[in-house]
Amino acid sequence: MYHYLAETWQKIYEGELKQVLREKIIRWRKEPAVVRIDKPTRLDRARSLGYKAKVGFIIVRVRVRKGGQRKPRPRSGRRPKRMGVYGYAPAKSLRLIAEERAARKYRNMEVLNSYYVGEDGKYKWFEVILVDRSHPAVCRDPEIKWICEPQNRGRVFRGLTSAGKKMRGLRKSRGLRGTVYYKWKKKQKERELKKRHEASRGAREPWQVAEKLKEEK
Question: Could you give the residue ranges of the DSSP H alpha helices within the chain?
């Protein structure tokens, strides 16, 4: 069932589903910015992120305005280049901003994760999974009781949620290509092979390097 739900959300902007989502967004615009809802809009996504239909778990839908920050034009003298009127981009993602707003609204709960549910020309909507860290049903659950530990207090404000780690550049899929250690290791391997850049004078072909290594052995 979850497989088919996921396939449906991949085509949400096509055919009849597009009209259904549009009608929902028209209703969501009239609601407050942070609204608690009875059940997830995307059940498959919520379950994959750790949501359980039990006491101690709630879902909150958060509306965030799209685009950069709105700042007044400076009155003091400076170059047009430094006016900043073309946009101030926030360092945080909109999903992380939505999680923080939900955490401020429900201060006795911790943010577990969040997911995208829709957007229009002005706003984006995210649903945030919140967990009551002091509820006995949560503290006794072996899969989620880690969130009751004191070191996980305020995890959304310390960049420990999935959106926060992505904003900090800690996703595993990024690899180590941006680190100093990776670059040093790559250069060290080139030194061992005595390899030079192909555009430089005296550069050798890989087969020449291989023959050189065989002769040295």
Answer: 2-10, 15-29, 43-48, 94-105, 136-139, 162-167, 180-193, 206-216
Give the position of tokens 């709630």: 58
Contact 130, 109 (CB under 8 A): yes
Distance CA 114, CA 119 (A): 15
Give the integer Cα–Cα distance in Å for 111 and 164.
11
79-104 pLDDT, tens per residue? 887 787 777 778 889 999 999 999 99
Look at residue 60 and tell me whether its pLDDT is greater than 90: yes
Nearest to 125 by CA among 210, 208, 12, 206: 12
- Are 123 and 29 in contact, with CB atoms under 8 Å apart? yes
- Using CA atoms, how far apart are residues 31 and 65, in angstroms rounded to an integer? 14
DSSP of 120-157: -SSEEEEEEEEEETT-HHHHT-TTTGGGGSGGGTTGGG
Over residues 111-120, the pLDDT tens digits come to: 999 999 999 9
Q: Which amino acid is at 119?
A: E
